Amino acid sequence: MADYVRPKKHLGQHFLTDKSIAKDIVEAINPASKNLLEIGAGTGVLTQYILKNESLNFKIIEIDSESVSYLKQHYPKLTQQIIEADFLRFSLDDLFDENFSLIGNFPYNISNQILFKVYDYRQKIDEVVGMFQKEVAERIAAKPGSKTYGILSVLLQGYYDIEYLFTVSETVFNPPPKVKSGVIRLKRNQIEKLDCDEVLFKTLVKTAFNQRRKTLGNALKSMGAKQWPAEYDLLLSKRAEQLSVKDFVVLTNLASETISPH
Ligand code: SAH
After folding, report:
1. Is 107 in the pocket of ligand 1 (CB under 6 A)?
2. 43 CA from centroid of ligand 1 (Å)
3. pTM score
4. Sequence-ordered strand ranges (E) for the chain
5. Separation of first and last alpha carbons in the chain
6. Ligand 1 touching residue 41 (CB < 6 A)
7. Is 46 a pocket residue for ligand 1 (Cβ < 6 Å)?
8. How many CA atoms lie within 13 A of 170 on its CB side?
9. Is the CB of 11 under 6 A from ligand 1?
10. Strand stretches in 87-203, DSSP E
11. CATH topology of domain 198-258
């Protein structure tokens, strides 16, 4: 019986050793949720608390075969619900019949990719509670004007209300990571669809932040915009990190009109 999983660096394995923190993370999920997916359960420190809610339809995606056999041995009832797969490559379309929530002490080496996938599945994912490296957690929750505000902050804040819940010290992990961690919660808001072309919105947000020192006017020009009405001059003299989701929506509609399709 495997009683130990050797932490593997390339899988971002840092096992949480503090049970009260594990409990706090699990309790941050809306208790009314029906379907829950855990990413990267490892040795099940969160899983043991998740299972206390017996009416939950619960699944795990874990990439590490050693962790998967550990979980199957320690939680035999879960055997059918554990999927050995790479979350980034796994289609979430048919995982549950209805919308679901996501929980995890996420592998830090793929945090951004996980969050982009949440954005892609925003119509199916109602809530996310999880631990990221502190800097990523802060960035996702950051408001316009702050230095850490970035692409994922805008994309996710368009569809989720985001709260930074608490900071976790590096000392409660085996092995300890180099940085502190932060737990955040994302709750789906009421916005079904942004009031603009959402594909162009994403492109524009990315373009604007990839040239974050330029004004939006210059960033727009690089996308092929010609001229725009003078009333937009003030907005376009700002830089990406100063703009709210609403500002980006306005800008996207402006771009739809001023960028000629080729
Ligand atoms: N939840 C556990 C483990 C956290 S470490 C705890 O808190 O102790 C991150 C976990 O994510 C590891 O178990 C690792 O194997 C898993 N993991 C890493 N990359 C993954 C991927 N692409 N898909 C699914 N799981 C992954």
Report:
1. yes
2. 9
3. 0.95
4. 15-16, 35-39, 57-62, 82-84, 100-105, 125-133, 160-168, 173-174, 181-188
5. 62
6. yes
7. yes
8. 9
9. yes
10. 100-105, 125-133, 160-168, 173-174, 181-188
11. Helicase, Ruva Protein; domain 3 (1.10.8)
Closest atom of ligand 1 to 13 CA is 5
- CB of 42 closer than 6 A to ligand 1? yes
Strands 125-133 and 181-188: antiparallel
Q: Is the CB of 38 under 6 A from ligand 1?
A: no
**pLDDT tens digits, residue range 128-160?**
999 999 999 999 999 999 989 999 999 999 999
In this structure, which CATH number among 3.40.50.300, 3.40.190.10, 3.40.50.150, 3.40.630.30 belongs to the domain 9-188?
A: 3.40.50.150
CA of 107 to the centre of ligand 1 (A): 5
Confidence of residue 262 (pLDDT cuts 50, 70, 90): low
Distance in angstroms (rounded) separating the CA atoms of residues 3 and 230:
68
Q: Given pLDDT bands bounded at 50, 70 and 90, which one contains residue 46?
A: very high
Ligand 1 within 6 A of CB of 90: no
Note whether 131 and 25 are within 8 A (CB): yes
pLDDT of residue 1: 58
Catalogue the E-assigned strands of 140-235: 160-168, 173-174, 181-188
Q: How far is the CA of 49 from the centre of ligand 1 (A)?
A: 17
